[in-house]
């Protein structure tokens, strides 16, 4: 009798252990307003099945999270799953800390927008599962445009013309940001690229030089205010206080502006001005499984991503964060969202012209050289070509190491 009871207890304990979900720690960067819906979807995934348990931990923005990950990889305590900025993905692959995922991605839906899944691919393999991709949009003071009868610019020459008309002693027509993201958006929209076909820095390409000369000309004419990345908060303040009237910014800043600050004018929203052959850069983040994960943990991570990619969950995410809808089948669920504010349809229509941005694995090293060049040209009056040639030499030196 006791023998049978012992066996029964052992079987029950074994069943209990077998049913315990496999834990997958996730370090993510989905801050407000996306943190609450993201973590709610994590909880719903955990409740919908018993195989896996995703444990989310917010780690700050992309740069903060990247530094924390590097420290954890050196000291121990790194997560299973990491929410990485897509320009950081190449470096993770080069360092051998990202797991290739293609064998786990059979039978994916065929309605993802072009280029979206490519943001998670590097050297022909998938290492990242994109969950939050954004494009820049062109913000402008619609009241000032209407008062001065200025048409909304559709190319950069029209931007320069509008900036001249809007500028005065008290205000500038355009805000120019000397950070890599903003400059890359300008270069790509004019048909250029900061890296060449081999994935190496190409700062002296004619399109890159022309783009910086374009900005330098507007700033020198007194029609634009130049701000670096450390002054980003002042850029927003200048715009809201009508000290500047136009600027590029990620679409994801839109809900933050409208929710947190009263806007004393009608906010204009338009697609990024494009030149011939221009593209709109896709930026954002992807889930990356880190080296050391078991095959079951990889399966769980992919299952979680598939859950996030269900149209109803994508729609929730889009409405909260203004990240782009990943799949075309989500669009019917967003019709009311677009009807509530037609400006959203204009901004989100850029999905068809979007293309992944920086893919060079050394970007996390050389981007500072480029930003220094932008600063020298826009605030220090160094000729654009000279500043870019210096940045190119420094970047090439890093690439050769």
SSE layout and pairings?
Blueprint: H1 2-19, E1 22-28, H2 35-48, E2 52-58, H3 62-75, E3 81-85, H4 86-94, E4 121-122, E5 125-126, E6 129-134, E7 136-141, H5 142-147, H6 156-166, E8 174-177, H7 180-189, H8 206-220, E9 224-227, H9 232-240, E10 246-250, H10 253-260, E11 267-270, E12 280-289, H11 295-308, H12 311-321, H13 335-340, H14 342-348, E13 354-356, H15 363-379, H16 384-400
Parallel strand pairs: 1-2, 1-3, 8-9, 12-13
Antiparallel strand pairs: 3-12, 4-5, 6-12, 7-10, 7-11
Protein name: Extracellular solute-binding protein family 1
Organism: Allomeiothermus silvanus (strain ATCC 700542 / DSM 9946 / NBRC 106475 / NCIMB 13440 / VI-R2)
Pfam family, one: SBP_bac_8
Q: Can you give a write-up of this model?
A:
The chain is α/β, with parallel strands linked by helices. The chain folds into two domains: 2-133 and 282-356, Periplasmic binding protein-like II (D-Maltodextrin-Binding Protein, domain 2, 3-Layer(aba) Sandwich); 136-271 and 361-400, 3-Layer(aba) Sandwich (D-Maltodextrin-Binding Protein, domain 2), CATH 3.40.190. Helix content is 46%, strand content 16%. The chain has 16 helices and 13 strands. The protein has helices at residues 2-19, 35-48, 62-75, 86-94, 142-147, 156-166, 180-189, 206-220, 232-240, 253-260, 295-308, 311-321, 335-340, 342-348, 363-379, 384-400, and strands spanning 22-28, 52-58, 81-85, 121-122, 125-126, 129-134, 136-141, 174-177, 224-227, 246-250, 267-270, 280-289, 354-356. Strands 1, 2, 3, 6, 12 and 13 form a six-stranded mixed beta sheet that branches.
């Amino acid at each position: 009798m006791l023998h049978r009871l012992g066996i029964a207890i052992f079987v029950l304990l074994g069943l209990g252990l077998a049913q315990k979900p496999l834990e997958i720690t996730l370090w993510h960067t989905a801050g407000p307003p996306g943190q609450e819906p993201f973590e709610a979807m994590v909880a719903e995934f955990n409740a919908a099945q018993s195989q896996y348990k995703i444990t989310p931990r917010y780690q700050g923005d992309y740069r903060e999270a990247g530094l924390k990950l590097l420290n954890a990889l050196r000291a121990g305590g790194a997560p299973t799953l990491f929410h990485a900025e897509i320009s950081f993905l190449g470096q993770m692959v080069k360092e051998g800390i990202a797991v290739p995922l293609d064998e786990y991605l059979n039978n994916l839906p065929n309605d993802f927008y072009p280029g979206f899944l490519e943001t998670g691919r590097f050297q022909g393999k998938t290492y990242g599962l994109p969950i939050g991709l954004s494009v820049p949009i062109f913000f402008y003071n619609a009241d000032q445009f209407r008062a001065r009868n200025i048409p909304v610019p559709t190319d950069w020459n029209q931007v320069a013309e509008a900036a001249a008309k809007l500028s005065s002693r008290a205000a500038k027509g355009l805000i120019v940001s000397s950070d890599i993201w903003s400059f890359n958006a300008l270069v790509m929209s004019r048909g250029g690229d900061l890296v060449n076909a081999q994935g190496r820095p190409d700062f002296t390409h004619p399109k890159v030089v022309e783009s910086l000369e374009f900005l330098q000309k507007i700033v020198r004419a007194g029609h634009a205010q130049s701000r670096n990345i450390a002054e980003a908060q002042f850029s927003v303040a200048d715009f809201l206080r009508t000290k500047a009237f136009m600027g590029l910014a990620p679409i994801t800043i839109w809900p933050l502006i409208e929710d947190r600050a009263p806007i004393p004018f009608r906010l204009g929203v338009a697609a990024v001005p494009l030149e011939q052959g221009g593209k709109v850069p896709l930026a954002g983040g992807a889930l990356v499984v880190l080296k050391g994960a078991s095959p079951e943990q990889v399966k769980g991570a992919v299952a979680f991503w598939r859950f996030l990619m269900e149209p109803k969950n994508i729609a929730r995410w889009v409405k909260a964060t203004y990240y782009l809808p990943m799949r075309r089948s989500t669009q019917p669920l967003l019709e009311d969202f677009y009807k509530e504010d037609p400006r959203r349809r204009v901004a989100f229509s850029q999905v068809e012209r979007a293309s992944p941005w920086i893919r060079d694995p050394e970007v996390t090293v050389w981007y500072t050289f480029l930003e220094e060049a932008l600063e020298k040209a826009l605030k220090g009056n160094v000729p654009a070509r000279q500043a870019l040639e210096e940045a190119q030499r420094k970047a090439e030196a890093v690439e050769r190491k």
